[in-house]
């Protein structure tokens, strides 16, 4: 453990990651101005609420590595590299590697904040130099539902000759509000909450959904054991 930590240190992992986050933040801030103007807020309204220089910042960079999939093994029904979900942040900047496909989105849904499975899924092929921007539940709520959060998932490769079976690397930059930011849309459709409360509620919801899924899977397993006894 100590060795791998010092390796990271020696190779400037922290510095490089922070520099990358700073650049991703600059891109995000350009988009924040557009969303603020669209909603009638001051240009810097969302930028101030997502100030990554403050200790109250909740913004996160997630580095993802999905392992290569063995082409000879069948993919169990309903199994995804990342299951259908909406992000709970303001916006997510998603950085993909060319050739490592799998991301799919389901735009146009009128509901979010629950784990619904979408209607029509569209592939988002990674293109060099492109950044995918997903709207999250926070922006949906903060815009009184004008901007809808994007359902997305990452497919597990299953179709030979069509899907990409190799490892997938991606990076997700989640713009999350400072814990003390006050969140309420211009039409006050939802009661005001703090950034901390919004994130906490989203985490609780995700955790409860995960627990229910695990229990349902366990129930299936127990049923199978009883049936074969
Ligand atoms: O790997 C990807 O492209 C998607 C990751 C994602 O949706 C997430 O981490 O929330
Ligand atoms: Fe996501």
Automatic annotation (TrEMBL):
Signal peptide start-end: none
A Pfam family reported for this protein in Swiss-Prot or TrEMBL: 2OG-FeII_Oxy
Keywords: Iron, Metal-binding, Oxidoreductase
Domain Fe2OG dioxygenase: 56-177
GO terms assigned for molecular function: metal ion binding; oxidoreductase activity
Domain of life according to the entry: Eukaryota
Family in the record: Belongs to the iron/ascorbate-dependent oxidoreductase family.
Protein name: Fe2OG dioxygenase domain-containing protein
Organism name: Cudoniella acicularis
């Amino acid at each position: 453990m100590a060795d791998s930590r010092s390796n990271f240190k020696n190779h400037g992992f922290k510095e490089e990651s922070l520099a990358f986050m700073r650049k991703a933040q600059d891109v995000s801030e350009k988009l924040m101005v557009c969303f603020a103007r669209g909603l009638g807020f001051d240009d810097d309204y969302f930028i101030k609420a997502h100030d990554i220089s403050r200790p109250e910042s909740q913004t996160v960079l997630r580095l993802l590595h999905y392992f290569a999939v063995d082409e000879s093994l069948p993919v169990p029904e309903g199994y995804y590299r990342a299951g259908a979900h909406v992000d709970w942040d303001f916006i997510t900047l998603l950085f993909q590697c060319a050739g490592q496909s799998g991301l799919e989105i389901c735009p146009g849904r009128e509901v979010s904040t629950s784990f619904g499975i979408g209607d029509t899924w569209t592939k988002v092929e990674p293109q060099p130099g492109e950044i995918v921007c997903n709207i999250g539940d926070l922006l949906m709520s903060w815009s009184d539902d004008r901007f809808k959060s994007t359902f997305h998932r990452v497919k597990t490769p299953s179709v030979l000759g069509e899907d990409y079976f190799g490892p997938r690397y991606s990076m997700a930059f989640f713009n999350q509000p400072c814990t003390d930011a006050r969140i309420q849309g211009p039409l006050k459709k939802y009661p005001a909450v703090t950034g901390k409360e919004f994130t906490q509620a989203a985490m609780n919801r995700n955790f409860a959904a995960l627990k229910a899924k695990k229990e349902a899977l366990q129930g299936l397993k127990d049923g199978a054991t009883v049936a074969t006894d």
